[in-house]
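Hi all, long-time lurker, first post. I run a small reading group and we've been trying to get comfortable going from sequence to structure in the token notation. Rather than ask abstract questions, I figured I'd post a concrete chain and ask someone more experienced to write out its structure so we can walk through it together at our next meeting. Sequence below, copied exactly:
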Amino acid sequence: MTVSYDSAIGSHVGMVRSNNQDSGFAGDHIYLVADGMGGHAGGDVASAITARALAKLDVPATGSPEAMTNVLRTAILDANAALRSTVRDRPELAGMGTTFTGIIPVADQLALGHIGDSRLYLLRDDKLSQVTKDHTFVQRLVDSGKITEEEAKTHPRRSVLMRVLGDVDASPQVDTQVVDTLPGDVWLLCSDGLCGYVDDEDIEKILRRRSSLQGAVDALIDKSLSHGAPDNVTVVLVETLDAPAVTDPRETLELKRQGPRFVGSAATTESDIDGTTSTGRNRLLSRKRPVRKPPVIEESHFESRVDEYLAELMAETRRRNRRRRLLWAFGGVALLAAIAGAVLVGYQWTQSRYFVGTDGSTVIIYQGVQQNIGSLSLSSVAEDTEIPLDDLDGLEQRQVKRTLSAGSLEEARDIVLRLGDEDE
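-- Answer (accepted) --
Happy to help. Here is the structure in token form:
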């Protein structure tokens, strides 16, 4: 099958951060996103170095898709070495790092390289699916069944990365794979500034309703902005197209894409890819305002002592769950106590009331109210007047059968006396 690819790209600094630590690249033969970490000290530098280093692979693929995954892995590890070298030359950048997710089309397949929590999604037949798996602490908790996907979205340690590029690991583990693609597929590469704040359902809806790739990129970034855009957000869309046979050289020109485009931090640094740079969606910064109050976010950071850190945080999670269960138990006891108190007060009130009625043969003064709760009666006999019901006239009998309410025992006795007097 012969296919071609079209792409669109955009990046935004967001409404909270003062600099864009994301970098993105959309070329003719490679598409990538890198999300830097390390704050002002070097997250933007790490993502820019990585993006510009991997963009050198923007040349026609030679070899099988499997061979290109090896090429991609080698280039990613070379970028990691470049980051470590940069830190040796500039110690103030110690601790900087970046995620990376990139794809290289090889005919009708893609060579994928991934590390960190930037993501690759596939929209096929209007259904969105996540292709990559996050290298985060909370994802490990999800995989081990400790927490659910929903709990992971709000977990206090969701910013902890277990794998990144940078000076933190000389030989990081990079995920690579070959994935098939079909005409009509739309591939989404994004930083967690999108997928961390916009639900997959909303992403799918925007991609299904797209009128153009660039329009969809803009809409996805706008959606993040509508959530307050607390983080940088970078989006790359790649669509797989049918490639018609080209016989006229002039048709080749018509099929030519926009050319290599950088966004984010990599776009602000001089590029070595034909001198081509682009600020993409930076114009949004002055146009958009947050609709919702942005949440406080924690900087992503890497933990080198994976096993120790996992054990420590899992113990912390267990302690937090125990505290939560205790709070729920305390709350349940308090609620039951409140209900019991309300029932007791209500019952005591009912027992301060009286009414005159009948047991069918005599006039009775009852204490309480006429209602029942299930099989529990809220009234009892206070006094049996021993006045035969038949001794009363027709109107009085009907009144007694319907009951006559009284605010006290004395008031109830007065009602009975009046009945007797009238009868006499």
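A couple of things your group might point at:
The CA atoms of residues 41 and 121 lie 30 Å apart.
Residues 306-350 form the longest helix (45 residues).
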